[in-house]
Design a protein that fits this description.
Blueprint lengths: L1 E5 L3 H12 L3 E6 L2 H10 L3 E4 L5 H6 L7 E4 L4 H13 L4 E5 L3 H4 L2 H9 L2 E3 L1 H14 L5 E5 L4 E7 L11 H8 L4 E7 L2 E3 L12 E6 L1 H11 L8 E5 L3 H12 L3 E6 L2 H10 L4 E4 L5 H6 L7 E4 L4 H13 L4 E5 L14 E4 L1 H17 L7 E7 L4 E7 L21 E7 L2 E3 L12 E7 L15
Parallel strand pairs: 1-2, 1-4, 2-3, 4-5, 5-6, 12-13, 12-15, 13-14, 15-16, 16-17
Antiparallel strand pairs: 7-8, 8-11, 9-10, 9-11, 18-19, 19-22, 20-21, 20-22
Helix pairs in contact: 1-14, 7-10, 7-14
Length: 454
């Protein structure tokens, strides 16, 4: 597909990198010469210097023949003007990054007035993921399929865990919960395991199942941690505001610390239910005075990766059981590889969301295209949700008779309000949602699961 991306900053660069790997024809637009030069050196894409709000720049980039235009600059207003111009000039689908809560309250109006196909908001998506993680404090990461009916959770096996030394068949027999281990990370390697795979302490597992089954599993293996009731947030960003609202809805008390007096005054109006403190959370005396030792979780959301990481480490030393850290640079992840640490990269969350949308429209076959996509194991593996259409080759065939490609695992079948962890006798029906795990890039649509005729 021909895709134009307006804005080559952090989000635009990662999205371009992801879609380039998918084999699409990418053109990047940015008005900053240094940013364009960096993208040109790092990516195999066409780079165009200019303003994305200028129709001449859009025409130079080939907007008339573009399948998708993505406006992901730092400015909501520029993104909306770019989107409107691209739609008028003939682009088929429009994606816009819109972050201001006031604009987001008018989502349906904006979709209709501007002709937007998708609105992306990195801060809100980041806040949603953090709130899910805090519901499962034992988890490193939590993602959802089919509007939350199925969850996929990253969990690190502690040394001395009841799971240590068991193969997956024994895990299923001993603990009973309807949870499937879909991926195991051991060191730098990721495996899509079979039943005889033996777990070790330190392994990172991707577990898939319904929320109640997940809770039952963690209780059975001794990995369930007490419910989080109080959270301290460092930084008063948009993400912090969204997160404070989500946590308040769950009955969790929130303290937000920001060093700007002006921003704290704004926060008092934006999140009146939260406790807002003006101070420098990188200073230990501030954290101690504000009760870090009694907090259940600490979330670092400033724009400085170093401050976020170091302060989260200090919070752990103070006895905080769960830390969540926002980072912009993925290479910092090794510093946060503790059992109860979680790392969030908003730009990568949006890259997944956009990649899922692009696959869906580029492979909109009758037999079923991608509904949801999550990258697992550092991008080595993907978990994809397909809505199964009538022409899918898997319909009506027991799974044991499907000639699945090597590495493909059908992890869950969502049928109405029921979630099935399938076995060899399970039969996929038209209208089901199938969650499939496979090596990254292998599956574009559901028929890619099999080697051929069943």
């Amino acid at each position: 597909m021909k895709i134009i991306i307006a804005g080559a900053g952090r989000v635009g660069f990662v999205v371009a990198q992801s879609l380039e790997a998918e084999g699409h024809d990418i053109t990047l637009i940015d008005r900053d010469a240094e940013t364009i030069e960096l993208a040109s050196n790092e990516l195999d894409v066409i780079c165009c210097l200019g303003s994305a709000t200028n129709p001449d720049t859009l025409r130079e980039a080939g907007v008339e023949s573009a399948d998708i235009v993505m406006a992901v600059t730092e400015s909501d207003e520029i993104n909306m003007i770019c989107a409107l111009a691209a739609r008028r000039l003939g682009a088929k689908y429009i994606v816009a990054r819109i972050r201001d809560p006031e604009y987001l309250e008018q989502q349906e109006f904006l979709r209709e007035a501007i002709g937007l196909s998708v609105i992306v908001n990195p801060e809100y998506e980041c806040a949603k993921e953090i709130s899910r993680i805090l519901r499962f404090p034992s988890a490193v990461r939590v993602e959802t399929f089919s509007k939350g009916s199925v969850e996929i959770i990253d969990y690190r096996v502690p040394e001395g865990s009841a799971l240590n030394g068991l193969n997956l068949r024994e895990v299923a027999r001993r603990f009973g919960a309807k949870v499937l281990v879909t991926v195991v990370e051991r060191g730098a390697e990721a495996s899509i395991p079979h039943g005889d795979f033996v777990l070790h302490g330190g392994d990172k597992l991707c577990l898939l199942g319904e929320g109640e089954e997940m809770q039952r599993f963690f209780s059975a293996v001794g990995g369930r941690r007490p419910r989080i009731r109080s959270v301290m947030i460092m930084g008063g960003s948009r993400t912090s505001v969204y997160l404070a609202d989500l946590l308040e809805e769950s009955g969790i008390s929130v303290t937000v610390i920001d060093r700007s007096r002006e921003r704290c005054n704004e926060l008092c109006d934006l999140i009146p239910h939260a406790r807002v403190v003006c101070g420098d959370a990188t200073r230990d005396e501030v954290l101690l005075e504000e009760g870090i030792r009694s907090a259940d979780a600490f979330v670092a959301l400033t724009g400085d990766d170093g401050d976020n990481i170091v302060t989260a480490m200090y919070a752990k030393r103070c006895g905080v059981g769960k830390t969540v850290v926002k980072v912009n640079m993925r290479h910092f992840s090794g510093m946060l590889d503790g059992e109860n640490d979680s790392m969030i990269a908003p730009k990568e969350i949006i890259a997944q969301q956009i990649t899922s949308f692009v696959r869906a429209i580029s492979n909109s076959a009758d037999w079923g295209s991608v509904e949801t996509l999550h990258k697992l194991a550092g991008g080595q593996v993907e978990a994809l949700e397909f809505k199964v259409g009538e022409g899918a080759s898997c319909v009506g065939v027991p799974l044991c008779d499907l000639k699945l490609r090597r590495g493909v695992l059908i992890s869950a079948i969502i049928r109405g309000d029921k979630t099935l962890i399938p076995n060899g006798l399970t039969v996929i029906e038209k209208g089901d949602h199938a969650v499939v795990v496979a090596p990254a890039g292998m599956l574009k649509d559901i028929n890619d699961m099999t080697d051929g005729e069943t």
